[in-house]
Each structure stands twice: as structure tokens, then as C-alpha cells.
Design brief:
- The complex is a heterodimer of chains A (about 325) and B (about 350).
- Chain A contains 15 helices and no strands.
- Chain A has helices at about 30-40, 45-50, 55-75, 90-95, 100-130, 135-145, 155-160, 160-165, 170-175, 190-215, 220-230, 230-260, 265-270, 275-285, 290-315.
- Chain A is globular, with a radius of gyration of 28 Å.
- With about 350 residues, chain B is α+β, with helices and mostly antiparallel strands.
- In chain B, the strands form 4 sheets. A 6-stranded mixed beta sheet of chain B has the order 6-7-8-3-9-10, sandwiched between helices.
- The chains are: A mainly alpha (about 325), B alpha+beta (about 350).
């Protein structure tokens, strides 16, 4: 813990429980009351000490309390427009005894595919930037991957519709090239479109996380690999992926959770066949079924905490975004 | 079949952009010898090693390993492997996986990998530590693992880039001798880069002195120490006193050189020299004595100086004196020294036997 007084923002004389009488020459202006106030605002045991607890307060107020409320509200019975105190597992029943659980599992599956695709595309990009781009330019190149974020997520996702649609760019190109005779209608409004949208939106996160992990892989590793003849697939499988595993995990988890929870992409691209947990929650709220929305959120939180725990056991998440070091 | 020279470097040079890291260097390393590239930091010795290993492409010249031109080949296609400076192990692999990895890439049978790996760990003194991770090993042990990882490949040439630089002094001495013994046992060529002259003297069969992108000179350790051919080497190796001057008189086997502090006679050593030529006279500090009155006769040379101080170093004592022109002179004696003692500022003469003066023209 922080040593008492270490947090003093302004250097103050130490306050003793029984202060020695002030030197005769020192002007004694402070009344006892003002001294107490000064002590409170600037003293060792005063307000500055509390600054250290601000983040804690923030976490409690905006993380622990909402999560606890989510859990509590998920077992409340439904009222007409709201909920009323009580205990019932109806919301969970509604989730598990309906198509919702199938949708949820399907969205886990599709999200998993997005993660794999993003990894296959993104990790080599991160390795390439780390190995082949001059050291001074590496961070600048990384910044380029932020550029898409300057366009709203909504617009970026929406822009995929004319690309993937029945008379969209992809279909027209394929037809004009004579590869297919009829436009493929299942690209848009299918899980495929959702996966494409998710990869497009979240790829940069995997690249960032992988790059950070790769950045901490010492340069000698590549030279030793050159010397021993570890290249291509072997280099990735034996050396780079194990070393960057915590970073890859962090980036993948981000994509996975967003793939399940973020509702814009399946809403705009997926159609009814490709809903995810985010869509179910949105629909539940739209139907004023708050306990159901809360129950699904609790299930997602549980999944997330489980994954984090697994990741922690595997890679030690206190050192996430770092490679395994000596 | 063994070739006579396992490493042949021909007019090798390297530029990094406008910076010339290595001028044009040529040398040969006899098969099965321990060859050391010695020189100050930034002199180009590591560049030479990396060019030989294939980690850099040369700007000019050729590298031949085992008689074969490998100039354009990648590191793993050459008959060499490298031991890197900074404990360069794979941090996520334990000792045996680190050592066996190169063989695994060569798709050898598991049983053979295991046998060769165990044998190599035994040789470098790490038997039984198979399961340790790199972070559970000391610096010396990590370098042993690196050594095993390279030697297990069975290449003809081992390149060592300052392998002992990050170890503490005592460990470095031990490892130094051990490297030498391992090299004698495996019998392959070791090419070792270091800036530490003691390390070089301990292990080398031959030393090449590299500085400012050039090979200054190449010789056996004893020759390098006793009769360096250049004033650079004389200044870098051992603790030599270098005096600049010019030649006044050339005789059959001696020359007379005028130094700023006086005239001295130096053996000519068969060198082609002429009068008025700028030369350097080098005298090893352990061959120099301080005395109050100069000795008579032709067998000794002396220069007037004044005493500065003495520093007791345990095995030896350093005596510092100052010539009239202000140049510091170092004389070393064994132990506390039986010679005369002087007060600071006392006038004296520095004396050496005429045969110990070394004339250097480069």
C-alpha cells in the first residue's frame, strides 16, 4: 500500500500528534480551526490521500455496481413496464427454453470464425511490420490502421451492403468475370456477411495487440531462427505464436466478445439468420423484457469471466500484450 | 574431407549507407583452430563475423567456408552457426527444446535428436538441467545452452559474438578456459569476437586485431604481445609505453631515434627505414625500471623523468613517471618491488635494456 503521506501534493511540515511549541519568532496567525481545515485539505491524512482511492471508487461505481444490479435485476419478476423486487428464474428459462440459446451458441461459433480469420490475416501483418518495416517507421505504419476508425462504425458497416449485396460489387465482379452465372444471394444477410463485417471492423485490434506483443520479441530471436533455419510455417508455429500468445489472446478476446455482443454488424449485415447476443438483448429491451436482457448479460459476463480466467491460467494476464520473457 | 582453411575472407567490406563499417579485409582461418577477432568496440569485428555467418550481405568481397563460396547464402545454408552475445535463447522453451530445436527442424529421428542433445548437454556441463527454463538459469548456464544449441548441429565452424561479454569477470575467466577445452574436444573451427585482450590471449591460437574497419595485424597471441607490428596493436595489447620520434641514424642492426625526451638506440629488426622517418618506439611496462642514476654502457637505454606516484595492485605495483615533455610513463614491478623508492617529483631515469626497445614504423 501507499505509505501515509506519500501522496501529499504539496510539501507540508509533518504533523505530529503533539506538536512542539512553535519557535518564538514564528508568527502564529492560524487559529486552531483554520489549521484543522488546512490539515484536512493538504495534510498527510487529509484529502490528497483519497485521490488514490478515486480509481477504486470509479471501478465500484461504474463496474461493480452495474454488474451487481444486472445480476439482481435478472432474477426480478417482470412488471408491465419495468421490474419489481422478487426472485424468479423465468428470464433464464426464457433464454434456455427457446431459440435464443441456439442463436447465442451460433453467434459464439460465428464469432470464433471471425477471430480465426482476423488472426490469419492480422498476425502476419503485425509480424511483417515488425520485421520488414524500418524501426523508425513501424509506429507510423501502425497508426495507419487507426484511420478506418475516423469513419463511424455505423457507416463503415453500412458501406458493406452495396459491396456484398445481390447486385453489389462482389457479385457483379464475379458475374462479369464469368466465374458465376447468377449472383450469389446469400452473401449479404447471412452469417458470412456478419463475419466479413466483424473481421473488417475488428482486425486493427488484433493487429495492434499482436504488434505490441511482437515488439517485445527480441530481435535476436529472428537471427537465431535464421541461423537454425526456422522459417515460414515453422517460424510461426514454434516461435512467434508461442511468444506472442498473450497478445494474440488479448486481441482475439476483444474480437470474440464484440462479435457476440455488438449488435450493429449483425443488425445491418446479418439479417435474422445471423443474430447474436447483442441482437437478442436489444430485442428483449425493445419488448420491455428487462429481466431477460439482464439474464443474457449475466450469461455473457460469466462467459467473459470464464475466458479471462482461462487466459490467465494459460498466459498470466498480468503480462498481457507482452511476450513470454525470461 | 577437411580443407586447410575453413574460413577464407577475401576483400570483404561492408557499408551501412554512407558509413563504411568495414573497409576491405582479407584473412584465412586454419581448420580446427581457435581464431579470435580482437579490437575496440565499433571497429568492425562483429560486422566481419555477421558477414561470415550470413546475417549481413557484404558490399564487396567474398566469404568461403570449407572451400565453398557462400557469399549469397542464408545463415542456415552455410557450414557455420552462431553463438550470440546476449543469452539469445528461446524464452518459451526449456533447455532440451532449445538445444534440440535445430535438429528438429532438420527432421532427424526423435531418438537421434535426444541422444545428440543429451551428449551435448553433457559436454557443456549442463547434464540434468534439461527441463529448466532459460529464466531459471544463470548467465553462464544460458551461454552454455547457446553453445550446445549451436554445437549440436555438427557444423564445421562456430561463430561466437562476444559470448562472454555479459558475464562477470570471474565467470568469464572460467568459461574462457572451458570454451578452449570444448573447442579442442570437438575439433572444429571457432571464430570468436571479443574486445577483451585477456580473453583473446587465453583462448586464441591466432589473433586478428581489427580496428576502424581494417585488419591491423594477425599473429599468434605471443607474437602479438611481445612483438606487435603496429603502434596501434602495441597501444591496445598489454601495457606498452609508446614514444614518438624520428630516426636520426640507421646502422646495420640498430637505429638511433630522437624522441622528445632524448635519443635512444633501438634494434632495427630488419625493417626498411630511412633517416628522418617518423617512428614509434614501444617498451613494455614490465621491462622498464626506474632508477636514480642511469646505468653505464651500451646494453641499456634511458630517458630522464620525474617520479609521479606508485599504485599497489596486489600482484604488481604500477610506478608512474613523467618525461620532460609531460608524457606519462608506466613501469610495472612484481609485488611491492625491491627497487629504489622515490618521493613525488624526484628526478630519476627510466631504463630498459636496448634489446627490449621495439621499433614500429606503422
Amino acid at each position: 500500500m501507499v505509505e501515509p503521506g506519500a501522496g501529499c501534493l504539496i510539501a507540508m511540515p509533518p504533523s505530529n500528534p503533539s506538536p512542539p511549541p512553535p519557535p518564538a519568532s514564528a508568527p502564529v496567525k492560524d487559529t486552531a480551526g483554520a489549521g484543522r481545515w488546512r490539515e484536512f485539505f493538504f495534510g498527510e491524512r487529509g484529502l490528497p490521500r483519497l485521490f488514490f482511492y478515486l480509481p477504486l471508487g470509479f471501478m465500484v461505481l461504474f463496474l461493480v455496481v452495474p454488474m451487481a444490479l444486472t445480476l439482481v435485476w435478472s432474477v426480478f419478476p417482470r412488471d408491465r413496464f419495468w421490474m419489481k423486487p422478487g426472485f424468479t428464474l423465468v428470464a433464464y428459462e426464457k433464454f434456455f427454453d427457446s431459440g435464443r440459446v441456439d442463436t447465442f451458441i451460433a453467434s459464439i461459433y460465428h464469432s470464433g470464425i471471425s477471430v480465426v480469420v482476423a488472426f490469419v490475416i492480422g498476425f502476419p501483418i503485425a509480424v511483417f511490420v515488425r520485421r520488414r518495416i524500418p524501426l523508425r517507421a513501424q509506429h507510423a505504419v501502425m497508426l495507419l490502421f487507426i484511420l478506418p476508425f475516423m469513419v463511424s462504425e455505423l457507416i463503415r458497416t453500412f458501406a458493406l451492403r452495396p459491396v456484398l449485396g445481390r447486385t453489389g460489387l462482389v457479385n457483379n465482379t464475379l458475374v462479369n468475370l464469368g466465374i458465376i452465372s447468377e449472383p450469389i444471394s446469400i452473401i449479404l444477410y447471412s452469417p458470412l456477411a456478419t463475419i466479413i463485417g466483424e473481421v473488417m471492423s475488428f482486425l486493427p485490434f488484433l493487429i495492434f495487440a499482436s504488434f505490441l506483443a511482437m515488439e517485445a520479441v527480441e530481435r535476436y530471436v529472428f537471427e537465431v531462427c535464421d541461423d537454425l533455419g526456422s522459417r515460414g510455417f515453422n517460424l510461426f508455429k514454434d516461435i512467434l505464436i508461442p511468444l506472442a500468445a498473450p497478445g494474440i489472446f488479448a486481441g482475439s478476446l476483444f474480437i470474440f466478445v464484440n462479435g457476440i455482443g455488438l449488435y450493429i454488424i449483425p443488425f445491418l449485415l446479418g439479417g435474422p439468420a445471423a443474430a447474436n447476443a447483442g441482437v437478442i438483448v436489444t430485442n428483449a429491451i425493445g419488448g420491455l423484457d428487462y429481466p431477460l436482457a439482464m439474464a443474457i448479460s449475466v450469461i455473457m459476463m460469466t462467459l467473459m469471466i470464464g475466458l479471462l480466467y482461462l487466459g490467465h491460467r494459460l498466459f498470466d494476464l498480468t503480462r498481457i500484450l507482452e511476450p513470454i520473457r525470461r | 574431407m577437411m580443407t586447410e582453411y575453413s574460413v577464407e575472407v577475401e576483400n570483404l567490406g561492408k557499408d551501412f549507407g554512407p558509413v563504411r563499417a568495414l573497409n576491405t579485409v582479407s584473412f584465412q582461418v586454419r581448420s580446427g583452430s581457435y581464431f579470435v577477432l580482437l579490437g575496440p568496440s565499433g571497429g568492425g569485428k562483429t560486422t566481419i563475423l555477421r558477414l561470415i555467418g550470413g546475417f549481413e550481405r557484404p558490399s564487396r568481397g567474398h566469404v568461403r567456408l570449407m572451400g565453398q563460396d557462400v557469399t549469397g547464402l542464408p545463415p542456415n545454408k552455410r557450414g557455420s552457426t552462431m553463438v550470440f552475445q546476449n543469452y539469445a535463447l528461446f524464452p518459451h522453451m526449456n533447455v532440451e527444446r532449445n538445444v534440440g530445436y535445430g535438429l528438429k527442424l532438420r527432421r532427424l529421428p526423435k531418438q537421434e535428436i535426444r541422444e545428440r542433445m543429451e551428449a551435448m548437454l553433457e559436454m557443456v556441463g549442463l547434464a540434468g538441467l534439461n527441463r529448466r527454463m532459460p529464466n531459471e538459469l544463470s548467465g553462464g548456464q544460458q551461454q552454455r545452452v547457446q553453445l550446445a544449441r549451436s554445437l549440436v548441429l555438427g557444423t564445421d565452424i562456430l561463430l561466437l559474438d562476444e559470448p562472454l561479454a555479459s558475464l562477470d569477470a570471474k565467470l568469464r575467466k572460467e568459461m574462457c578456459l572451458e570454451l578452449k577445452h570444448i573447442q579442442e574436444r570437438v575439433g572444429i573451427t571457432f571464430l570468436h569476437v571479443t574486445h577483451n585482450q585477456e580473453e583473446a590471449m587465453t583462448i586464441a591460437d591466432r589473433i586478428a586485431v581489427i580496428a576502424d574497419g581494417d585488419l591491423i595485424e594477425e599473429a599468434a597471441p605471443r607474437e602479438i604481445y611481445e612483438t606487435p607490428q603496429t603502434s596501434f596493436t602495441a597501444g591496445f595489447i598489454g601495457e606498452n609505453n609508446l614514444f614518438r620520434g624520428r630516426i636520426e641514424k640507421v646502422e646495420a642492426d640498430h637505429v638511433t631515434a630522437v624522441l622528445s625526451a632524448g635519443k635512444v638506440r633501438v634494434p632495427r629488426r630488419g625493417l626498411e627505414v630511412s633517416e628522418e622517418q617518423e617512428v614509434t618506439v614501444s617498451i613494455r611496462s614490465e621491462l622498464l625500471t626506474l632508477t636514480a642514476s642511469p646505468p653505464e654502457g651500451d646494453g641499456n637505454q634511458s630517458l630522464p623523468a620525474e617520479f609521479v606516484e606508485q599504485v599497489f595492485l596486489g600482484l604488481t605495483t604500477n610506478y608512474l613517471a613523467k618525461l620532460e615533455d609531460g608524457q606519462q610513463v608506466l613501469a610495472r614491478g612484481i609485488g611491492e618491488g625491491e627497487g629504489e623508492s622515490f618521493a613525488p617529483g624526484a628526478p630519476l631515469h627510466i631504463v630498459w635494456e636496448t634489446k627490449d626497445g621495439l621499433l614500429l614504423v606503422k
